[in-house]
Amino acid sequence: MSEQGIGAALTRVEARDKVTGAARYTADVVLPGMAYAALVSSQVSAGRLRSLDVSAAKAAPGVLGVFSHLDRPTWHRVPAIPYFGETRMPFSDDRIHHAGQHIAIVVASTRQQAAHAAALVKAEYEAGKPVPTLEKALPSAYVAAQGNYVNFPQETVRGTPEEALAGSPVRVKAEYRTALISHAPIEPSVTTATWEGDELTLYDTSQAVVVHRGLVATAFGLPEDKVRLVCPLIGGAFGAKTHVWGHTLLVALAARRLGRPVQVVITRKQMFTTTGHQPPTVQRIEIGAERDGRLRVITHDSTNSTSFVAERPENTVLSSVATYAVPNLRTRVRLARMNFGTPTAMRTPGDGPGSFALECALDELAHELGADPVELRRRNHADVHPQSGKPWSGKNLLECYRIGAERFGWHRRDRRPGTRREGNDLIGYGMATARRVEHHRAAESTVDIRTDGGVVVRTATQDIGGGTLTTMIQVAADALGVAPDKVTITVGDTDLPPGAPTFGSITSGSNGSAVRLAAQDARGAAIRLAVGDKGSPLHGLAEDAVDVRDGRLFAKADPRRGETYAVLLTRNRVNPLRGNGKYSPAESQYETSTFGAHFTEVRIDRDLPRVRVVRHLAVIDCGIVLNTKTARNQAQGGIIGSIGVALMEELRQDPVSGRALAPALTDYHVPVNADIGQIDVHFVNKPDHNSNPLGAKGLGEICSIGVSAAVANAVFNATGRRIRDLPITPRRLL
Amino acid sequence: MRVKFTVNGEERTADDVWEGESLLYVLRERLGLPGAKNACEQGECGSCTVYLDDTPVCACLVAAGQVQDREVRTVEGLGSEEELDPVQQAFIERGAVQCGFCTPGLIVAAHDLIRRNPCPKDAEIREALAGNLCRCTGYEKIIDAVHTAAAHSRGEATS
Ligand code: FES
Ligand code: FES
Fold first, then answer.
1. Is the pLDDT of residue A674 over 70?
2. Closest by alpha carbon to A74, among A247, A245, A256, A224?
3. Do residues A254 and A313 both lie within one domain?
4. Is residue A289 part of a domain?
5. Is there a contact between A494 and A225 (Cβ–Cβ < 8 Å)?
6. Domains of chain A: total
7. What are the pLDDT digits (tens) for A701-711?
8. Does B119 lie in the same domain as B65?
9. Which residues form the domain of B117?
10. Hey, is A526 helix, strand or coil?
11. Is residue A723 in some structural domain?
């Protein structure tokens, strides 16, 4: 740990505002003259709008305008995908693709009036015949052509998989299913739009202000610099705010037509139906192995649902491609269209459902072989990337297994399922590997040192709750040699240097690197200024003979000789001294991933088979940890979210219409306080400098990958029942 | 209608309130107190929890008319500029805050629990806070924070 910042368990800088109610989120921004919008949702899941009667809504008190496809909005162009939710622009025709689709927007002087008037819009439908569920869509599943979201190989072959299977002494084969699940962040999506002439400002719950600005600009045919996106703080997202969804554009459209600012807060129901979800998957896996456990071959065939207005394959099969050393492989991903909203990235896209299938299948293999599940994974460790053959930039997975097994007391596991009990409880242990490709993004930042010794970091990334504000301050403080409490940060505004999105676990590595480069630039400039300044005690020294600590530059050879940034800059009348940082990921000779191992203990009452996770340990290898406190909190949250995925989360659909049956937090069960046992997180904490200058990698996703498999494997160990469908509800165990 | 009530110790009046308006709406949109959050507006999440007289309620479920002449206390009314309430302090110290959207409601709910039960056990905390959803923290730290706050309130030092 560096005393100057990196790794310290610094308390989150915005925590005080959050506990006093002073923190301002997007919905808390009130603009003068602001009107309020409500969106009207389609009641049917397929077909056309035969008529839309908005007269009563228009005549309702306070109503300023009602817009729909009848107003023929002229969008300039469909923004480039990815990161735009759908290929169909909102209101572009009378067709209905899913229940909950926006069919009109009502704007009124108050939020209540808008909601009231929205209920007065009368729609008549020519109902079509919906494809209601993935099950019903399966017969027409297809392999999508590359392009748009389809940005990874849909089919991969390595070696000779069929021959390898035929010649394998041990084989396991099974089908796994994951459910349709929802991000359900506590903060709903919100947009406020305001125009000044041809310039648009959006206050938007956006996980990527810079990327989203470009998409909005395209939709309205504006140059990018005429659009400003602001996102002060996000109240959780988990992927739901990764893309630009229809409501953002519709509010901007209404604001333009009405000539005043308009705000919409998406209803809880609309959160479930119009801001994405993780699609259900059906995955078939077959593994062939030697008797000693060495893998010969894996085949992984996966199908997920998508909507009729976007193709979004889940890269579940990457788990099989990139986790273990296996010479033969065949994978395929197919899409099946159903009449439901468009799926999107959700913690963790691809690897969440994919690792469930693969890591359960390995557990089945271990059982078949009578092998220890940890040992089996060790034996198949991928020393280099199994597909490309390139070396890893950094990998400490074996250490994760070792530390995890030791700390958890894995040796106490009984291989024979259903044998350990205590009173009426069956007890089981399970484990799984976690692996996630590390993504990189270009990012920029400035770091200003002021004459009062204060430091300001400016970068257009955003904090969705993971602690970005705090970690970026730590990175700057560390590189500059100042105390973190001297540093403040401004984020979430496209007027700032373009920062990285806060999704795909990109922020720490990519944005952190930009901040570090900017801080190093500022530090270097200050040192150059000092050694070239006759008035400085450091005058004449070589640049590398100077160090900085606690805001004071000093001669390494004689630490008494020196002066502070503040004194140096004041004397030279430089205010501020600005450092610029630009991180652009280069083509690398390495493969970069994050890794981890999960260990779980479940207890199951024999009469009422509700699974309780009483103990979970995750050992995570994500490079150097920027802040042990925020990191541990974030990881615990991710683990518990995934325990929810394993045991309870499912957005159930009506089998005929496909509609979400109960899109509400009361019915969409997320884990609550009463459900959770003890969650331990351990970090390997070794920098990966081959990955990026900072040596830090993403944490937001790796912490949640493999958890559902570890739970399912523990359930098998406890009961001897192999549950291959998520969530593992009491009903499935009866 | 006109609604008159006390908020955080101050007499406040809201005019032209609609029949169907919630207390949450009045606090946020009319009185400029956005501390209580609008996360579901249908009583599912607890993010809007405030005290009504001495009882924590979901402000989104309370009709504005019901608070006439009564006393409301929101997260903004706990603690002061100089000194945070022990619950607020403990949430910061223990890292019980991530995105923070559930925090104002949780703080009021935890505050109420400690008033009623100065020495709550784990299970009692979990039970008392089960109506407050948090999607980020996973609750471990929230429970730590409640223990810490309870100890502080009893006048004990904690490590
Ligand atoms: S906003 Fe009131 S309970 Fe969710
Ligand atoms: S901290 Fe984000 S919902 Fe609780």
1. no
2. A256
3. no
4. yes
5. no
6. 3
7. 999 999 999 99
8. no
9. 86-153
10. helix
11. yes
